[in-house]
Amino acid sequence: MSAGSSLLSVAAAVARVWETVRPLPEVEVPAGAAVGLTLAEDLAWPSHLPSLDVSAMDGVALHSAAGGEEAVLEVAGTTCAGEPPGPPLSPGQCRRIMTGAPLPPGADAVQRVERTAPAGEGRVRLLAAVRPWENVRRVGSERRAGARALERGARLGPVHAGLLALLGRASVRVIRRPRVTVAATGDELVGAGEGAAPWQVPNSNGPLLAALVRSWGAEVLEAGILPDRGPELREAITGASRRSDLILLSGGVSRGDLDLVTGALPAAGLNPIFHGVAVKPGKPILFASSRDGRVHAFGLPGNPLSALVGCVLFAWPALERLAGRPHPPAALQARLAEPLARGSGEREELRPARLSVLPGGGWQVAVLHAASSADLGAVARAGALVHLPPRCSPLPAGAAVAIIPLPGASQEPLPLPTD
Amino acid sequence: MSAGSSLLSVAAAVARVWETVRPLPEVEVPAGAAVGLTLAEDLAWPSHLPSLDVSAMDGVALHSAAGGEEAVLEVAGTTCAGEPPGPPLSPGQCRRIMTGAPLPPGADAVQRVERTAPAGEGRVRLLAAVRPWENVRRVGSERRAGARALERGARLGPVHAGLLALLGRASVRVIRRPRVTVAATGDELVGAGEGAAPWQVPNSNGPLLAALVRSWGAEVLEAGILPDRGPELREAITGASRRSDLILLSGGVSRGDLDLVTGALPAAGLNPIFHGVAVKPGKPILFASSRDGRVHAFGLPGNPLSALVGCVLFAWPALERLAGRPHPPAALQARLAEPLARGSGEREELRPARLSVLPGGGWQVAVLHAASSADLGAVARAGALVHLPPRCSPLPAGAAVAIIPLPGASQEPLPLPTD
């Protein structure tokens, strides 16, 4: 950020973050704790699905050759789901069978219970004929043992919690969950609810950054408010480096006398990779890394909106990279709901916007008026940030713009189709 | 589900769920625990923002009438951010001031530090003139005390964690987080990783439903596997009714001998509201409620894909209603990536599909081949369920279809715009 240096574009800064940060080590975790993490092994089906020929209905298992309409068969016991197949059928026999239960040896079909009738002591009459393999889920018909179930690199979601169980897995290999220390700097700050004097400011960046980082699936260590004194800052950053993969600091990164984060990071062994991006708000952002590449830090501007923008644009990609994702987070395209009266200046610009779903699919945004780069009030009603290129002209309604959806933003509902 | 009864459509069943379930009571929670919950009070700004006239720059505070180019002023101390405004300026004086610090009485402008130069002992020279209120964020310019910050009914996201702090709120009134008991029934089930015999089935519905419900923000009580014995089922359901707002059971809801959930729910005081929806998969779903409307239960089919579909279609709206959302979850519209070769039959149909973002905005889906209604393997690669109306004809590529995105599904990335 020295006078003559040209600032990085957002894309160039994201690329620097992406090439500097490396994915975290692989670890084995209980299957129930894997949701949100990146799979670090290929998963295969351990056995055929179904593992045996099983009944698809409640009914009687029999051999189809003996299953003509009006046939009367001796009922030789019952197999419930979860029980072994039982003894082989003798000629003239059938066996009562429940959905999901394995067929006894000698059976190749199931007649559903609704198509049978009692026929005296221990006997049943078929009300309709059965074809071979009718109402049977055949062994291996859905999956063959050894078939690939999921590839290394997949992001595990709720459905995969079920899949892992189905594969018989109690634990699974994943990329470790990132650990992030969040701290605000500034002697003007007081904790929320602690009663700020008019010349003091509640620490909103701490809770904001912590909640953002949690929404992206990382573990947060909240370090509260750090003092504007170099040695204490350095000590706090050194401590955080031992406990976390990423450190998010807000405040103290512009050019004033007390902008101590800029000095404290290198003193704690975190060397600047870049300082300053040609973006509004959020220009004085600082990105630093330890020599061994194990710990990274962002010095974000102290204004809440600037801190939010810096976190979404740069810390989010860093977290995705740590978590082993294949690409940085995606920008989406949306249509402007209203004309954009004021274009951007020399820097790329991020503006809070309401987000809604168009009836025909796709997104629509209405840019919100933010009073200043401290104005979290406007963002509180936003579902996305509109990302304008530098020197962007005013745009008509309906023009396509790039947007970054904000986490936890609710979208306008559309009704389910009715019939 | 008796022979002659006509089954509900999905929309009619969702409407029954929505009108039966009521929002949970309001509670006061710490601000940090409010993300994901529904705001149950209107929030207002407690004071002007800024609360005083504060400097927007590091520099010197002065009266603009004394701030002509080349003016030399006596420096009367320093105000840092977080300090009170200090003593009034005397004529010929200025005061060193940091970004965010309040102006001293008698000052109406700030000249930034880069536009000043030392002028001997305790004096400073201005390199440029200042205008009134230049580099000053005026009291109340961004927000007036008492202005509305956020409305009751908003879904609190990460940004609101910052907003609550800025409002000085350590706690906030919200709709209580729903508590959900999840249990699977079936004597054929064994816990994941406990080594299933070929005729046994790992309990995948328990982990699947628990992870889905957690992704929607509810608290989950996992009750494992319940036995196929009426009295024990009833007792377990009665116990769950005391601890939870919603009970999700899988298995035991079709017409076979051992479909005990259908009987156990009323025995535990949860009376059927509907049993059976004209949807494939997931037809035999059962929805029940206590007489006082305080506890609700779904009996979901035991097949994993059917349980997933039932949970997404019906339990999700129930959770949204409990959580105080204004509408049931939204279906979105997407375009088919490939022709839909096989239309739907007499029932509405849900099919797992890959989800991607179209370059011009909007969603695209490619329907995946699912081997059966037990096939969680196909859904593991899906980002959405395609929702077809009944008697839907085959469709060409590009046709519009309704989709329900699955939680935790990753989307195809698009690059950020470059300049």
Structure, explained:
The structure is a homodimer of 419-residue chains. By secondary structure, the first copy, chain A, is an alpha/beta fold. The first copy, chain A, has 7 helices and 26 strands. Chain A has helices at residues 10-20, 158-166, 205-215, 230-243, 261-267, 304-322, 376-379, and strands at 26-30, 43-44, 54-55, 59-62, 72-79, 93-97, 109-112, 116-118, 123-126, 136-137, 148-150, 171-175, 179-185, 189-190, 201-202, 219-226, 246-250, 270-275, 279-280, 286-290, 296-300, 332-336, 348-357, 363-367, 384-388, 400-405. In chain A, the strands form 7 sheets. In chain A, strands 7-4-6-5-9-8 form a 6-stranded mixed beta sheet, with no helix packed on it. A 6-stranded mixed beta sheet of chain A has the order 16-13-17-21-20-18, sandwiched between helices. In chain A, a hairpin with a 5-residue loop joins strand 23 (348-357) and strand 24 (363-367). The two termini of chain A are 61 Å apart. The interface between A and B is large, with 136 and 133 residues.
> Would you tell me the overall average pLDDT of chain A?
91
Fraction of residues in β-strands of chain A: 25-35%
Shape, principal axes of CA atoms of chain A: elongated
Proportion in helices of chain A: 10-25%
The first-to-last residue Cα distance of chain A is 61 Å
Number of helices of chain A: 7
| Category from helices, strands and their pairing of chain A | alpha/beta
* Biggest interface, CB < 8 A: A-B, 136 and 133 residues
User: What oligomeric assembly is this protein in?
Assistant: homodimer
Main β-sheet of chain A: number of strands, strand sense, barrel status? 6 strands, mixed
Q: Unreliable runs of chain A, pLDDT <50, ≥5 residues?
A: 411-419
Q: From the alpha-carbon coordinates, what is the Rg of chain A to the nearest angstrom?
A: 31 Å
